[in-house]
Amino acid sequence: MRWRLVVPVVVVLMLVVLLGYGLTRRPDILPSAFIDKPAPEFDLPTLASDRERIETSDLKGGITLVNVWASWCVACRSEHALITQISRRTGVPVIGLNYKDTEKAALRWLGRYGNPFAVVAFDPDGAVGLDWGVAAVPETFVVDEQGIIRYKVVGAITPEEMNKNLVPRIKALKQSAS
Amino acid sequence: MIPEIGHFALILALGLALIQTVVPLYGFARNRADCLAVAAPAAIGQFAMLGVAFVSLGFAFYANDFSVAYVAANSHTQLPWFYRIAAIWGAHEGSLLLWMMLLSCWSLAVAAASRTLPREVASCVLAVMGSVSVGFLMFTLFTSSPFTREFPAPGEGRDLNPLLQDPGLVFHPPMLYMGYVGFCVAFAFAITALITGRVDSAWTRWTRPWTIAAWAFLTLGVTLGSWWAYNELGWGGWWFWDPVENASFMPWLVGTALIHSLAVTEKRGIFKSWTVLLAITAFALSLLGTFLVRSGVLISVHAFATDPARGVYILAFFTIVIGGSLLLYAIRAPKFEAGTEPVAALSREGLLLLNNIFLVVAAAGVLLGTLYPILADSLGMGRISVGPPYFNKVFIPLTAPLVVLVGAAAVMAWKRTRAELLRSRLWAPLIIAIVVGVAMPLLTVGPGALAAIAGCVLGCWAIATALEDIVRRCRGRRIMLPRHVLGMALAHIGVGVFVIGISLVSGFGGEHDVRLAPGESTSMAGHEFTFMGTRHVEGPNFVAEVGDFVVRKDGEQIAELYPAKRRYNASGQTMTESDIDIGIWRDLYVSLGEPLSGDAWSVRIYYRPFIRWIWAGGFLAAIGGLLALSDKRYRRRADAPARRAVATDRNDKAAHA
User: How many A×B Cβ pairs under 8 Å?
Assistant: First the structure.
């Protein structure tokens, strides 16, 4: 047996370990330190809107969904249709947080796929994303009428996630508020 | 009742696949002809059972049997019947069934051709294919049966994903899978070679046609996929370096390398262990592609199901099949490496060695880019999305030299070629390539990017050299050239056409986003697009807003385009249906964005010169493969007694040397 011929086996084993690791990393089971805490302070310019800026106090007074996205993010494309659907089904506005992106690319993305957001906060250097504990794009936060984060989805929203968790939770929050 | 028959047929198929695997291998070990003979009938039986399962699922779709969970999730009474049939492979469970169905088609073909092979080789190949089938059947039966019932049955289905409601869905997945699964045959031959310890020119002659067939189907599948993405996704692009696209592209690259290295092994008897390794790798990448699509490890526009249990199963299966094969390779391959002579740089085998290096490194580059997000994540570097900039940077420098080499393919002789011969035969194609390559973009799309023109010259070089070879060989000959020679030339012409297409579309293409109210117009590359307004249209299972655009060139109307925005009734999803004015020299592509204030819409307009050439190149290459496949040389032993194929091998080698 020549050692050089063993190289392919070793490569494949390394590949398998890597892929196995990838499988264990279900992004949705990461705990979050931000749940049931007030949303971190921010004050950002907005993208493609009449309003000049958006800040933390704008989140209060009603339930909102904050969706962190970027034009370079493949997963954001896949959850795009669901964001619109959630907003329509629950009547809750979605605030976009455009993360580490350029204005041109972000506007172009919205033009291509449609704009599901009521307003988009523009965070080019990711400073606010850091405060919000964004580990991966996309992430979605449910913020209640007092500006407290009630639920968080890491990674792209799936139809199951939407039907089992997001929509019921938003509806429950709405009921307890009224 | 019918779905239960399908489910039962799958269980029977599993039993037959087990027999197909175990009995022939036992027969091989004990040298018992009666056990070896079981392989072919078992393969035929498995094909019949999978056929029953496939038809059962098709019937459930046709009859709108929503008590079957898979049908309820992927169909709708308003869905046209041809999409209801194509919906069989519209999601995870059914695609698996299609995969197994095609695998059993290949097994059937091998069983039918087994008369031309020594019995132990044919049985061993079928046994290996059977074992792959066992893995997939168990996966289907235990984790993802398409026949699971749902009680109470819903009154209406949830409809097929609107993205998939395109004629592309009818053809693209079967072709792609045919290619993917076809590499299983080459893989089975490789494993057989490792078991029997024989890689001779008879072995390569059996393996070559199967590999070429799989490669031709994969080429068709990838080309159709790119075409479908262009038509359906509304981004005006034809390739996105999406993980799932890469999953189909990597086996293609390695498969292309395999075809070429098989040629060297057949003619010169060298590169044996390398050829075997490539055959295993091509299939490994097909399996890896399946893993990436099914497990949800990578996020992509195509990703089907994200169920960790399925991911774990496929990963385990991948480890056993590929890990086991490579272990076998490590143990047995030294046998094939008997005193190889050095390879001359100026020889066909030297050229093909370079070809293999470039192709395999390119495949490794794509693999690295595809898996990089997982790698970065595991090293704690955060989640990273690797996009087209990486792939373009890695891929273009690796493939451009490959196209230069294609030009020398026909001229190079085995063993050694004199440099004067190269010079005397290649100067004319070179001059033609430069003249045509520079003139063509100037005459059709105008002056522009230098890199694009260089790419165009490169493409013309591949075409000119292939034509030179055909013309020179035909001169003074009465009879037709052998088909494998024509096939090779055609495939290389396809590469040239493809390269011209991508160079010019990326160098000269244009796009812009614009807000248009009815009556307003915008211009793009000399064409004036006027937006006439939108109207409301009701389709079978959707409602649509259809825009009306008039395109004029030099004041004369040349086309009317009707891009649409569809809303599907069942899912509420909206889809952009672009409309395209097709041409040999350019496509004009209009798609509707979002409605804006008043009757105005955001509109995206793309100008895509020479984009048809990209797919034309892919189709030409695939036709070249099929032409080579139909060559008599692969059938010449069809009526000779099988065992003589091995016996005459030595004489054959002498004749080629």
Answer: 103
Beta partners for residue A102, in sequence order: none
Q: If you write DSSP's letter for every residue of A22-34 in order, what string do you get? A: HHH--GGG---TT
CB contact (8 A) between residue B308 and residue A26: yes
- Rounded CA-CA distance B396/B106 in Å is 34
Query: Would you mind telling me the total number of residues written for chain A in this entry?
Result: 178
Q: How far apart are CA B353 and CA B50, in angstroms?
A: 41
Query: At which residue do the structure tokens 């469970």 appear?
Result: B93
SS3 A58: helix
A-chain residues within 8 Å CB-CB of B385? 72-74
Please state, in angstroms and rounded to a whole number, the distance separating the CA atoms of residues B38 and B47. Answer: 14
Highest mean pLDDT among A23-27, B359-363, B398-402: B359-363
The chain A residues in contact with chain B (CB within 8 A) are: 1-2, 5-6, 8-9, 12-13, 15-16, 18-23, 25-26, 72-75, 77-78, 81, 85, 88, 108, 111-112, 114-115, 135-137, 155-156, 158
Place B612 in a pLDDT band, splitting at 50, 70 and 90. very high
- How far apart, in Å, are the Cα atoms of B339 and each of B103, B271, B334, B336, B342? 37, 11, 11, 9, 10
Give the best-scoring range by mean pLDDT among B149-153, B445-449, B481-485. B481-485
**Token digits of residue A114:** 């449609």
Quick one: B585 exposed, middle or buried, by C-beta within 10 A (0-12, 13-18, 19+)? Answer: middle
CA-derived radius of gyration, chain B: 26
Domains (range + CATH), chain A: 27-177 (3.40.30.10)
On whether any CB of chain A is under 8 Å from the CB of B336, the answer is no
At how many degrees (to 10) do helices B348-378 and A7-24 cross? 30
